[in-house]
């Protein structure tokens, strides 16, 4: 038996013979300076150096917490309702101005600049979208979703108070930085609170909610811009968003994530985030300009487009070899199923987004 008075575990350099013969591992609890070991018939003393204090979990890479937390059916319905409100607010906002753009353009005498109102939202939502998944791993699902909702609400509020077309474009871009993470976070949280067997069912219903938001957005925008004011196209989301964020804060019992704030901030992949933002901007801008503002063979279109492809390549290299906690872990592409799904999603949005963008800009 080993008597001890401290809680720091070290390995003793020299062990008594009887301790070795009885299969002890040599890991013992040591007090400062002296260990007292009671053998079967003999009393042993061995001097040890005073161990240095060790603070657990303060060094090394941040360990991610498994945030899965299966909930009973009634609570799942409540959580799902709150997430559905978040998703409706996001999707409604992204298309509601499609029918209000002529009114907004006339109000500000914007001309062709009006096309930047939907483009600014799409640009920032696309750029920030990959970041939220990793932020939710580091800071927790609830914190990441609430951050996205707060940024989205502030941007929508300010958009309604815009006094110039430039202000409106800037505020729409700010709202997009939050809106880009809402749908992703809703799908992630669903994966945490329901079983694998039921996951497809709930995510399928959520896809229906997304379609609902896209369907009712343009008619609502047209009615508000003609009967009330185009500013309400942005303010109409605020009550829905506020109800959603209150529901999420109250009913979402997700597990806390270990680690202090400083360690969490240091764990964020800032290089990867910067490369994502720069690469997305350099690719999306020439795609917006091409054939509209400048011809496709113009250097103003080709130069940033090629530069954006290069930046995305650098991003992939950094995520593969440089990042401690990458935004996009490259090893997931070793799985054929995952790669196939991403290719299918890419083809889908290549087909869908240009159509939606053209309708909003026309």
Helicity range of the residues?
Answer: 55-70%
Portion of residues in beta strands equals 5-15%
| Average of per-residue pLDDT values | 79
What's the CATH class label of the largest domain?
A: Mainly Alpha
> Number of helix segments?
13
Describe this structure in words.
It is a single chain. It is built from 13 helices and five strands. The protein has 362 residues and is mainly alpha-helical. It has two domains: 66-258, Growth Hormone, Chain: A (Up-down Bundle), CATH 1.20.1250.20; 269-350, no CATH class. The strands form two sheets. The protein has a three-stranded antiparallel beta sheet with strand order 1-4-5, with no helix packed on it. Strand 4 (34-38) and strand 5 (43-47) form a beta hairpin. Helix 2 runs antiparallel to helix 6 and helix 11 (270-289) packs antiparallel against helix 12. The longest helix has 32 residues, at 196-227. The N and C termini lie far apart (83 Å). The model is unreliable at 1-59 (pLDDT under 50).
Brief descriptors of the model:
two-stranded antiparallel ribbon; 362 residues; globular; 2 domains; Growth Hormone, Chain: A; three-stranded antiparallel β-sheet; mainly alpha; single chain
Write the layout of secondary structure elements.
Blueprint: E1 2-3, E2 8-11, H1 17-21, E3 27-30, E4 34-38, E5 43-47, H2 73-95, H3 101-108, H4 116-139, H5 141-160, H6 165-193, H7 196-227, H8 232-235, H9 237-251, H10 261-267, H11 270-289, H12 299-322, H13 336-361
Antiparallel strand pairs: 1-4, 2-3, 4-5
Helix pairs in contact: 2-6, 2-7, 2-9, 4-5, 4-6, 4-11, 5-6, 5-9, 6-7, 11-12
